[in-house]
Design brief:
Blueprint (H helix, E strand, L loop, with lengths): L5 E2 L2 H8 L12 E4 L17 E8 L13 E5 L2 E5 L5 E5 L4 E5 L12 E6 L6 E5 L6 E6 L5 E7 L5 E10 L2 E8 L7 E7 L4 E6 L9 E9 L5 E10 L5 E5 L2 E5 L5 E5 L5 E7 L23 E9 L3 E7 L8 E7 L2 E7 L1 E7 L5 E3 L24 E2 L4 E6 L1 H10 L4 H9 L7 E7 L1
Parallel strand pairs: 2-21
Antiparallel strand pairs: 1-2, 3-30, 4-5, 5-6, 6-7, 8-9, 9-10, 10-11, 12-13, 13-14, 14-15, 16-17, 18-19, 19-20, 20-21, 22-23, 23-26, 24-25, 26-27, 28-29, 29-30
Length: about 425
């Protein structure tokens, strides 16, 4: 691989991630995602470059299967899971037949209050609920793929840290994302537990810039003419826990502000896996009044999005002033459907070649890959299964609108023939390379 994609000197690795004392091993070659070299560029990428096939599934529409306003889809072990709300999951078979509603909110022994997240388990398709408590222990409630209760575990809380989610690495190891509550707290980044939830390893926080440790409250105020102004509130110390993404028998850890993607493997070795080269596009200045989520001379990774397959990683970046294809999306508000400006961009990193590409919009205003396998709408997955099947969800209205302007084929064409705009969404599932 060309040197532009590899860093071969260990001291360079340490300098970039600032975490020599916190990693167990340092690779002799660290792949570099060279974002800086591609800013202002980009191209339309065909889905066939990253996926071998795609299929479309119409979710059955019944009174009991109706999907909520902001759904998110997962596919695992021949089941389709749609988060209808934060606490309710609608479960369908691989062909879209409605099976049951998973809703365990309540006070019963097999139910949960204060649900912080629900996770679909890799390989099995079982479901895990995590509850949140500031002072007491969190709970993990385990259910099989049919929603039957299996067991409950208590997750101890470290009072000096904020703990967000706990995910199993395998049957005997769990990883909890964490962040220090105070500036003088122990700078814990993640906590590793055994199956009895004894702490077996604390992972210290990597180096992050000071501006990532300061959080300022703000409130959007809309005037009678429709204009929006931002009112600033108090400023206080806050560090966000890392996002956790399983990949095979390891876990990726990503935190805002640090340019390194870390890995914890099945042997509990913690090491850097990839480094992002932001170059001059990462603004480290302490004066940041001009930098918002949409504007400013600063690029960062949106860490709540990360899709990894055998060959590729799909990422999302807040491009701000450097976004060469800003777009608008209509969102529901108290004033009806309103356009919202976006200055983010998705990107593709090929792990084999080291090539990094910003994804240009295949249809103006719609982000994603050009769906050249079945001539469907632009495709950007929101989740990926343990066997690398990535899924995305479209409303019936979106599919009908696309079909009215473009020719479709195969199963998508057959779906469109019988589709009504009030029907449940359509799920696209692509087998990623």
């Amino acid at each position: 691989m060309n040197n532009i994609f590899r860093i071969l000197i260990l001291t360079a690795v340490v300098a970039m991630n600032g975490c020599k004392s916190q990693t167990d091993t340092l690779p002799t070659e660290l792949p570099v995602i060279d974002l800086a070299a591609e800013v202002g560029k980009g191209k339309i990428v065909n889905l066939s470059k990253v996926a071998s096939n795609i299929r479309y599934v119409k979710l059955e529409t019944t009174e009991g299967s109706l999907i909520g306003t902001y759904p998110k889809v997962f596919y695992e072990n021949e089941r389709i899971y749609v988060f209808s709300t934060r606490q309710v999951v609608k479960v369908f078979d691989r062909d879209g037949k409605f099976l049951f509603t998973f809703d365990k909110s309540g006070r019963g022994p097999e139910e949960a209050q204060g649900i912080s997240n629900i996770r679909i388990m890799p390989y099995t398709g079982g479901m895990v609920i995590q509850t949140f408590s500031i002072d007491a222990k969190d709970r993990l409630l385990f259910y099989d793929r049919d929603g039957n209760f299996e067991k409950s575990k208590l997750v101890p809380r470290n009072k000096t840290t904020s703990q967000e989610k706990t995910i199993s690495l395998n049957d005997s190891v769990f990883i909890g994302s964490a962040a220090p509550r105070h500036k003088d707290s122990l700078q814990i980044f993640a906590i590793v537990y055994d199956s009895a939830f004894n702490v077996i390893k604390n992972i210290l926080m990597p180096s992050i810039p000071d501006y990532e440790k300061i959080y300022q409250e703000s409130m959007a105020m809309r005037a009678s003419d429709g204009s929006v102004s931002i009112l600033k509130g108090r400023t206080f110390y806050r560090v966000f826990p890392p996002e956790l993404y399983p990949f095979k028998n390891s876990m990726r850890l990503i935190t805002p502000g640090n340019d390194t993607i870390f890995t914890l493997d099945s042997q509990l070795n913690y090491s850097p896996a990839f480094c992002i080269n932001y170059g001059k596009y990462k603004n480290l200045s302490k004066k940041r009044d001009h930098i918002t989520k949409l504007d400013g001379n600063h690029i960062d990774m949106i860490v709540r999005y990360f899709i990894e397959s055998e060959e590729n990683i799909i990422l999302q970046f807040g491009m701000r002033d450097f976004c060469h294809q800003p777009y608008e999306m209509m969102i529901p508000t108290t004033r009806g459907m309103q356009p919202r400006r976006h200055t983010d961009c998705y990107a593709l990193y090929n792990k084999k070649s080291g090539k990094f590409t910003f994804l240009n919009q295949p249809v103006k205003g719609i982000v994603g890959f050009k769906e050249d396998l079945e001539d469907g709408p632009p495709f950007i997955p929101t989740s990926i299964s343990s066997d690398f099947q990535a899924s995305a969800l479209y409303t019936a209205a979106e599919i009908l609108d696309f079909a009215s302007k473009n020719s479709t084929k195969g199963e998508l064409k057959e779906i469109v023939k019988k589709l009504k705009d009030i029907d449940n969404p359509i799920v696209a599932i692509a087998k990623m390379k």
